[in-house]
Write a structure and sequence with these properties.
This protein has a domain at 15-266. By secondary structure, it is mostly helical. The protein has helices at 2-5, 12-47, 51-88, 90-117, 119-126, 132-145, 148-164, 169-173, 175-193, 195-217, 233-264, 271-306, 311-336, 338-346, 353-367, 370-385, 389-414, 416-441, 446-473, 482-504, 507-524. It is globular. Belongs to the MurJ/MviN family. Keywords: Cell membrane, Cell shape, Cell wall biogenesis/degradation, Membrane, Peptidoglycan synthesis, Transmembrane, Transmembrane helix, Transport.
């Protein structure tokens, strides 16, 4: 039964909410990720791995870097503050959130102005290998896209509150209009405005991401300008002390992407674009399946942590193993069919054989880190739920140091593939660090720890088995049409995983079987 595996003491209405939310978020995520994938496909077709696309991807990462530095901290860190205030009264929750939102908006505006002034210096640091002409283009694109940071911050506030209120659809829908605007700009404006039209659409997309959520957040009365800063000095101090480790951790994670681009800018032309295309392709299944599961589970983890329930550790261990099990067939297919997937996705128009080779190499090595990226995100949120953000900060800083060292070394031998491999190894090390630290910060039953480690070992053996079987049978059908070859690999991978799970008697497989059986039964009975 589902109750005995994951939600042992969680009431039936809560389980139904989680199941329904997971299904809804997954459907929205599929549509959103497919749109985003279509956006990258068109970018590859129109611009390939050219100096122009390299300039755009470096420029676009700057507002994203700024947002990520505070975005996840705001989305995740403000949830406990909002929950605590709301328990006292809705009026207090509205007052606290409105004054914090106003403060974040003012600070984001100031940071944007500073970055606009320092743009030439920032781009020179981020792309030291660019030519003067490329740097000039990067500067112009950065100036166009930088204001999007302010709207990303507003979206982070609304996302955190709406997800806590279990209103999952609007935050999930946010990326859809943004992707549509960029797609329209690529198709309709490229011939007239070139890459500048796409940069403008990226800015408008950030605005739309907030506007999609605005009608739903209005009733919580948190998005009003409130400059009553003096009355909340202690709140500001406590908030920044709490958020600073998360901000440092977020900056460290994004610095991985910045370091990748910095080193790639010194490699052959198109390396920055190849890393971007490979990363987006890797995040397609990651975002649709694994991160959707994490998003829906997080409110339950927060509640279990607040109640200091033993269910907290059980949720963590079960979540880790379910994420790993779901990721096994996906990762195996990505590794075996890396070239096929890149060619299906991108090989058309300006995306030639050289671009395909670069992107395939990066995608292959990024694929090793897919599961670890999901697990790292899951564990980061879990530590934040128990008010231990310093642990995530330490792990993130250590990860960026490892990534820098490994990227510098491995890029000499594997080029753009070495940069992707360094990122995957850094994510693995960060995940291991967080797993090892969990028993120090929460009470873990020795028997449950033993069971978790045994399940983890079986999952590792299962991945080795699935990958080996897929590797040996792949030559039998690799001459088929690429799309057909991919579907055969995917089908075989999931069949091998299912059979192996039954042979190894994995509890996670029993949970998923019960999950879908329960969901099917509910659908039949309405």
């Amino acid at each position: 039964m589902i109750e005995s595996v994951i939600y042992m003491k969680v009431e039936r209405p809560m389980k139904k909410t989680i199941v329904q939310a997971a299904g809804m978020i997954t459907l929205i995520a599929i549509f959103s990720k497919l749109l985003g994938f279509g956006r990258e496909l068109l970018m590859a077709s129109y611009f390939g791995t050219s100096p122009t696309s390299d300039a755009y991807f470096v420029a676009s990462i700057i507002p994203v870097l700024l947002f990520t530095a505070v975005g996840m901290a705001i989305t995740t860190g403000m949830v406990p503050l909002y929950a605590e205030a709301k328990k006292k009264s809705k009026t207090e929750a509205s007052e606290i959130m409105s004054v914090l939102t106003t403060l974040f908006l003012v600070l984001s505006f100031i940071v944007t102005l500073i970055c606009l002034v320092l743009t030439p210096y920032i781009t020179k640091i981020m792309a030291p290998g660019f030519s003067d002409q490329q740097l000039e283009l990067t500067n112009m694109l950065t100036i166009i896209m930088l204001p999007s940071f302010c709207f990303y911050v507003l979206s982070a506030v609304t996302t955190g509150i709406l997800e806590y209120e279990k209103v999952f659809a609007p935050p999930a829908l946010g990326a859809i209009p943004q992707n549509i605007l960029i797609i329209l700009a690529i198709v309709l404006l490229t011939n007239v405005y070139g890459i500048y039209g796409i940069a403008a659409a990226t800015l408008l997309g950030a605005v739309s991401q907030f506007l999609v959520q605005y009608p739903f957040i209005r009733k919580y009365n948190v998005l009003k300008l409130n400059f009553n800063f003096k009355a909340h000095k202690k709140l500001f101090r406590d908030t920044f002390l709490a958020l600073s480790p998360m901000i440092i951790a977020s900056i460290a994670y994004q610095l991985n992407a910045v370091v990748d681009r910095m080193i790639a800018s010194s490699l052959q032309t198109g390396s920055v674009s190849a890393l971007n295309y490979a990363n987006k392709l890797m995040f397609l299944p990651l975002g649709i399946v694994l991160l959707s599961f994490i998003t829906v589970l997080f409110p339950s983890i927060v509640d279990a942590a607040a109640e200091k329930s033993k269910q907290f550790v059980h949720l963590i261990f079960q979540g880790i193993n379910v994420i790993s099990l779901i990721g096994i067939p996906i990762m195996a297919v990505m590794l075996i069919e890396s070239e096929t997937l890149v060619n299906i996705a991108y090989k058309r128009g300006a995306f030639d054989d050289e671009a395909s080779l670069l992107t395939t190499t990066a995608f292959f090595f990024y694929s090793f880190g897919m599961i670890f990226i999901a697990l790292k995100e899951f564990l980061n949120r879990s530590f934040i739920a128990i008010h231990q953000p310093k642990i995530t900060m330490i792990a993130s800083v250590a990860s960026i140091v490892a990534n820098i060292i490994l990227s510098l070394i491995l890029s000499r031998y594997f080029g753009v593939g070495g940069i992707a491999l360094a990122t995957s190894i850094a994510m693995m090390l960060q995940t291991l660090f967080l797993c090892m630290y969990l028993p120090r910060k929460t009470e873990v039953d020795p028997a449950e720890m033993k069971s978790f480690l045994f399940s983890t070992l079986k999952l590792m053996l299962l991945f080795a088995l699935v990958f080996a079987l897929l590797y040996f049978i792949h030559p039998l059908y690799e001459t088929l049409h690429p799309i057909l070859s991919f579907f055969v690999s995917a089908l075989c991978a999931f069949i091998f995983t299912a059979i192996g799970s039954l042979l190894f008697r994995l509890k996670e497989m029993q949970w998923m079987a019960a999950y879908f059986k329960s969901k099917s039964r509910r659908n039949k009975h309405g």
